[in-house]
Sequence to fold (749 residues):
Amino acid sequence: MIKFVNPYTFLPLPKKVKREPPHMHDGSGASDQILYTGKFEVEWQLKSPLLLPENAEEEGWMRVVKENTAEITVPGSSVKGAMRSLHEAMFMGCMSVLDLDYTPVYREAAIKGQRAMKSDSDWRIGIVEEVESSGKPISMRVTEKEANTIWVNAEGLRKVAEKKGKIPQTGDIIRFHTKDTRSKKKNGRKKISKPESFIRYNDGILENLTDQDYVVIISDGGTRKSDKDWYWACKKIGPNTKSLTIDENAWKNFLIKVDGTEDKRREKNKKNDSGNDGRLEVRKNAEVIGKRIVQNGIFKKGDTIWVKVDDKSKKIIDLSYSTIWRRVAKKENGDVMKMSDLFEDLDVIPCDPNEKKGVCLSCSIFGAVGPKNEKGADGLGYAGHVRFGSLELVERLKKTGVEIIYDTVMPLSAPRPSNGQFYMENPGSDDLGPKPTEPQYKNEETTSHWDRRDIKNLGRKPAGRKFYWNHDPLRLHKTYRKYSGQIRYEERIHYKGYEGANPKMVSRRPIVLAKDDVILKGEVTFDQLTSAQLISLRYILDPVSLREAFNIKGANNSVIRLGGGKPLGFGAAVPKIKNSKVTQSRNRYISCDSEIKDTSNETCDTNRDRILGAIINNEDDFVKILRRRIVCDEDKDDLINNITMMIRIMDLEALGVDRNYVSYPPNATWDKYGTKEFHESYNFFSETQGAARSEKDNRRKENSRNKRDKRNKKNKRYWGKWMPLPVLEPLEYPDWQENRHILRWYKND
Fold:
């Protein structure tokens, strides 16, 4: 058994978002409400190290004072983004940054590798002949429809190419001995040890082709074993093959699939190491054996890719970089599934300030942007009423700076909301519905895919707003290693890059060490805020006061996360308002007596209620004011339950001793922490995603199960094993310390 706490959890979405027409920035439209203008001076005390960008100096995050010492600045835009997300979650606002056009992409089932078989003659190989300046192919020469796929030995091809001083690459033309092409297939594949000859056509100009010419597609090592022979697919590209154009929808879907590739990610991070020819080296045991094209959706003449041809329309209707690649999620009618389909019955989509119903409380404070028009231009927006200044070190630290270190940090990739196993509400493991149909298990559909959202008519919805648990990135893990047959004890820091990690994904970053005296300060200014707006802003800048107002039990360690590395525990900081200055907007140019501010001999803690009470005309029921603006249908429990869950997520000690188990799904026991084996999270998802199985496959799986799980033989789990995240519940202390967030994985169960 391997137990762990996934780095993130979800705050359930509200049943309904209350929207009201916003008032104008000159105060009009506010009815008889009193509006307020002023500022808060806020101090932020670091509770965990702050992870800065790789290029922190160039981007203005730090100025080196001396070796391992720097002056720190957190841009106001970064602070505002974090505070807006918190405000939307805390006060049941919309999801303003939700990308409704996002389309999930999944790795194809292994059976899709049949595109390289003669039985699937719709799939062929296409060579780019003409291309637009953007890199979009205009036309492609496609291989013969009935042509067999020949698998050429990678080493054999390399040796023949080397005789001409070349390294094999995707798009090369090769010829085989006739007797080899007539040889029998083995295991459904025709394999040839080496070609007869090797040709490289320059610039994609295909002239003088013969009936003996085959085009090769070279793919990366992937899951191939280094101690086995590698084979690459070839198809006949004779003189009579035709040029075809690409269907527009097919191209759009292709670009969606490309956007999530590793090559595209490296390109965005400026870490693409392709040469001048736009090719990437393919290595086997550190030796270069070929070159493949970069999977970034940009082509040039001579580039080669798998294409699916519709004989009726004479167009290319799908594209793939390899025999098993990626697919977009689709609805039952065949249309591409988007994020908007997942949220179609929910009321949390981004506010549109142009609509009569208005905007949520968060958008009324921070601003809102209308949806794009048909031409792609942004719609009319509503400007925010609040501005966040940059955070800087307090005066006593400005001249000396604070301690920083430079260290390698574990790989951090982009979120993958397409993983419905964690990002969607899920039924229990025993409620997966009837056994899958033949098309479902042949395509290896899984319950974790968006396409399978209606299991047993449960109508699965998004799990909620994503937040990361708080834990210590500097914590040590006990690790045992073998050296020369001897087992040695080691300790590894949690955030460090692990052995065997892709060096292109491990980054060296500046880290601000969190000490008791590391405090940043910043100014928050606001203009023309209503009572509800001001109170909510006040609470997120001093979350302890919010817990006190709602009488929620718990510790006083409510933190907000700044900077990068949130999955690793970086950037926890406690905000606290130190000074405030508030003026009734209508009187600010008339009388200074309207100003409400802290006194110099009182702390903000003791003065807090007096200030807020004065703002709202001595009415002390701040909770009532918030409920009136936020909650629909006067369901009082909705707001307090929501805040209770959010306070739990923000609590620095919410996980108790379980904070030592925070990790993406491990593949080994914790004594192997820091090894490649431990961090191979993909094994967890491949084994627990609930892949559909036939009755035959199910019997095989059940017969191999551990005796501990004999009862499952009767259950016949045709949807396989799966493991969704636990549901966050509005529990108060001490119930929060229960291990409800712990996941237990029985490998190969």
